[in-house]
Design brief:
By secondary structure, the protein is mostly helical. About 65% of the residues lie in helices and about 5% in strands. Strands 2-1-3-5-4 form a 5-stranded mixed beta sheet.
Length: about 525
């Protein structure tokens, strides 16, 4: 990379940095509205199946009811229901999944601002706080789920708020922190693992007082959290089930998907853990950009090459600069040592649990992504403390490269339905099937839920018997409509001699609609009386 270019770029960067250092108050606002605009502009069409299920539940609910309550994310659907209906009331003609995406856009930008304020308070570096926040906000998995419909983003927001108020320099507020922590658990149960981090944070806040005061603060937080959480969950359990049995309550709050379980294959788990942490920051496929190249995309590709090349140059150039004692400097810093311990506890708790619980699911790692960002910031700040030198701007260039790469090879392609085959297939079926088309299915799954959601004009019936009712089929066709079998219904019928015979007699020739692509298998077959 030519040195004149770097010299000019560095000069420009310093001028910009100087202006922002003199006008710090604008940075949180720029971060919030800039990220919100970016998220709103490129919502994903590669929907995670949970979000589709949430949206379907919300649209099927005509008035607030217990069907919105779910033990794994207690009040997320309730909040989504209200937000969706508010948008409809003020004139936005949107579907529930779009409403949930917009809600996540808003919440994610808020989470970025909270992280920025936390980093600024911890590191006292405008440069580190700004670019670490951008690295967080533009990291692959966070960015993807910020534009999707799911409960993780809002739960992490309340974790970040809880962490902000247990920073060692702040006054202990055990009741308020307990309320924030409780809200996080109400949106996703996995937030419960953050509890020990809060306890350690409160301990550090009371580090200079006697043991009785520490114990009192811990008890205030613990008892308040238990009372709030138990009351909320048991009340919702009673509303949803009309039961007061403790055993049934225990089963309800520990419910998880049948395909979810602990796994203890050390080498597989280690591979998934390493892969998952890498995918937190960088993900996507080069092939996804095929067919979407525009002049603006070419400019971004050039920017990516320049940023990557500059980063490599800066790493090589500064490779031999002193910094090996950064960790010792950090540990000897009485102010930052507690922060390091908090970030380490936060990271290790989630790493340990997710090492054996669905380690292949990268999105669960969002719950400790902020802790990883905090660790990077602490070690970077320790190097600044230990050695006085001109910043190399590696973090800034690396953040630009990561953000552009994630946009080009994940966010932008998945903004287009054509790049996610199941959505493309469902939209094609929606154009083909008229209002009132009947679909028979045998079991719920992600593919069935997605096609159902994007064909809202259809009527779905679960097969109560081995075959569809013959009179029902006659009535459907008497109305000039059609009837179809979904994948699970086809498989169920084909699994028995009687069902196979029925299929041979009632399936319409050349009517199959199917998608078989990269692990997807979605089929529909028209049947007649």
């Amino acid at each position: 990379m030519p040195s004149p270019f770097l010299s000019n770029a560095t000069t420009l960067f310093r001028r910009i940095a100087t202006w922002f250092s003199q006008n710090e108050v604008v940075i949180p606002w720029l971060l919030y509205f800039g990220l919100l605009a970016l998220y709103l502009a490129f919502p994903t069409r590669n929907y995670y199946w949970d979000g589709v299920s949430f949206a379907q539940t919300i649209e099927d609910t005509k008035q607030l009811g217990t069907n919105l309550i779910h033990p794994n994310h207690l009040i997320y659907n309730v909040l989504g229901y209200y937000f969706y209906n508010v948008l409809l009331a003020v004139g936005f003609n949107v579907r529930a999944i779009t409403a949930l995406q917009v809600l996540n856009n808003i919440v994610s930008a808020m989470a970025a601002v909270v992280l920025y304020l936390t980093l600024k308070a911890m590191l006292r570096s405008l440069y580190l706080a700004t670019f670490l926040t951008l690295l967080f906000a533009l990291s692959a998995t966070w960015w993807k789920f910020s534009t999707d419909a799911d409960a993780y983003i809002i739960s992490v927001l309340f974790l970040l708020l809880s962490f902000y108020f247990v920073l060692p320099d702040k006054r202990p507020q055990p009741y308020f922190v307990a309320f924030l922590f409780f809200l996080s658990m109400c949106f996703h149960q996995l937030a419960i693992l953050f509890g020990p981090v809060v306890m350690v944070g409160l301990f550090f806040q009371e580090a200079r007082v006697e043991s009785k005061a520490k114990l009192s603060t811990g008890l205030k937080f613990g008892v308040t959290t238990i009372l709030l959480t138990t009351t909320a969950y048991f009340s919702c359990f009673y509303l949803a089930t009309d039961k007061l049995e403790l055993r049934a309550f225990a089963r309800w709050i520990t419910y998880y998907s049948p395909d979810a379980s602990f796994t203890f294959n050390i080498w597989d788990n280690l591979f998934y853990t390493l892969r998952g942490n890498a995918r937190l920051f960088l993900s996507g496929r080069f092939s996804l950009i095929t067919g979407l190249v525009r002049p603006s995309i070419v400019v971004l590709m050039v920017l990516l090459v320049v940023a990557f090349g500059t980063f490599v140059y800066l790493v090589v150039k500064n490779f031999h600069k002193p910094g090996s004692k950064s960790f010792r400097a950090l540990m000897n810093n009485s102010r930052r040592r507690p922060l390091l311990m908090l970030a380490v506890v936060w990271t290790l708790i989630y790493l340990a649990f997710l090492f054996v619980w669905l380690p292949q699911n990268t999105f669960y790692r969002l719950f400790y992504l902020p802790a990883l960002i905090l660790l990077v910031g602490l070690f970077a700040s320790a190097r600044y403390d230990f050695v006085t030198y001109t910043p190399t701007y590696r973090l800034a260039v690396f953040t630009i490269a990561v953000g552009v790469a994630n946009f080009l090879f994940q966010i932008y392609p998945y903004h287009h339905p054509d790049k996610f085959p199941p959505v493309r297939f469902a939209l094609e079926l929606s154009k083909e099937w008229p209002e009132g088309t009947s679909i028979y299915y045998a079991a719920d799954n992600a593919d069935k839920s997605l096609v159902r959601y994007f064909t809202p004009q259809t009527a779905w019936t679960r097969l109560a018997n081995q075959t569809p009712d013959s009179e029902e089929l006659k009535n459907i066709y008497a109305q000039g409509l059609t009837a179809w079998l979904e994948t699970t219904a086809i498989d169920q019928l084909a699994s028995t001699p009687e069902g196979s015979a029925w299929l041979s007699a009632h399936a319409k020739n050349d009517s199959k609609r199917e998608l078989k692509d990269r692990g997807f298998r979605i089929e529909f077959l028209q049947v007649v009386p």
